[in-house]
Write a structure and sequence with these properties.
The structure is a single chain. The protein has 250 residues and is an alpha/beta fold. The chain is 39% helix and 16% strand. It has one domain: Rossmann fold (3-Layer(aba) Sandwich). It has eight helices and seven strands. Helix 1 runs parallel beside helix 2 and helix 1 packs across helix 8. The longest helix has 22 residues. The structure holds NADP nicotinamide-adenine-dinucleotide phosphate (NAP).
């Protein structure tokens, strides 16, 4: 039976770049909501690998177990690794956030990754073949910023989930998180919407502006035997943004 890596958020940004990078040596399942962009990612992948598309809205964590387990049963394949890159940014001060906003973002960033790991580690659903998980978190996970309470707290919860499951599922399954810094992707087009904002942002990053191409090789490392003794770790990949405390920088 063929082995696969499931990549969520594969229709864009970090998930797409990771899919292209990993397709050199792996079979993939691409998840997202936009079928056209998922197909575009598939077309950019290495032709020798088998690339399948599983379209599902991961905010619907209430429907996830039913949908994914029946899809997987139909395909008759095994999934060894999960890269969870699906994410959404809702920048609002607390006074503008509703219960529904929190529920949507926690469904996407916490409940769905938890349920996917549960299913992939199940004997019945995936023959317990799961070995490796990488969550794409954010460098806000251990920090704070105005108007980021829903997004930032959900990424902190994602990393908490990662650490707890790393203990619970060891030694069979390794789980680690990557904490990227700000990059220009579909998610951030509303933030980096002018040259001057981009120029200002660059001044805060010792190594300059990064992109999803800087994240994909780190995912590959965490999925590889080179990181065999690493689990439960947050790996910050942000060009040094969060270690720079130089006064007056900007
Ligand atoms: N860009 C940054 O500055 C930055 C910084 C730190 C961390 N991150 C994290 O990096 C990850 C990837 O973000 P990105 O920058 O690559 O953004 P992106 O280009 O906007 O990609 C987001 C991906 O998430 C998927 N997605 C969003 N909502 C979904 C839903 N309800 N169900 C299923 N899939 C959904 C999108 O798929 P569809 O469009 O097909 O639904 C898309 O493939 C996110 O977890 C984000 O929090 C990004």
């Amino acid at each position: 039976m063929k082995n696969y890596i499931l990549i969520t958020g594969a229709s864009s940004g970090v998930g797409r770049e990771t899919a292209i990078h990993l397709s050199k040596n792996n079979n993939l399942i691409l998840n997202g909501r936009d079928e056209t962009r998922l197909q575009e990612t598939k077309d950019l992948c290495e032709k020798n690998s088998d690339v399948l598309i599983w379209k599902f809205d991961l905010v619907r964590s209430d429907k996830l177990e039913e949908d994914f387990s029946s899809w997987l049963r139909e395909k008759n394949i095994q999934i060894e690794s999960l890269v969870y890159s699906a994410g959404m940014l809702r920048m609002l001060p607390l006074r503008g956030l509703s219960l529904e906003d929190f529920q949507r973002i926690y469904s996407l960033h916490v409940y769905s990754p938890a349920l996917l790991v549960k299913m992939l580690n199940s004997r019945k659903i995936n023959k317990q073949t799961l070995k490796n998980v990488v969550f794409i978190s954010s460098n806000i996970s251990n920090r704070g910023a105005a108007a980021f309470s829903a997004y930032g707290s959900s990424k902190a919860a994602l990393d908490g989930l990662m650490r707890n499951l790393a203990v619970e599922l060891a030694p069979k399954v390794r789980l680690n998180s990557i904490l990227p810094g700000g990059m220009v992707t579909r998610m951030t087009t509303g933030i980096y919407n002018s040259e001057s904002i981009l120029e200002d942002a660059k001044k805060n990053v010792p190594l300059g502006q990064g992109s999803p191409k800087d994240i994909a090789p780190v995912v590959e490392f965490l999925l590889s035997p080179a990181s065999a003794w690493m689990t439960g770790q947050q790996i910050t990949v942000d060009g040094g943004r969060t270690i720079d405390i130089t006064d007056g920088r900007k």
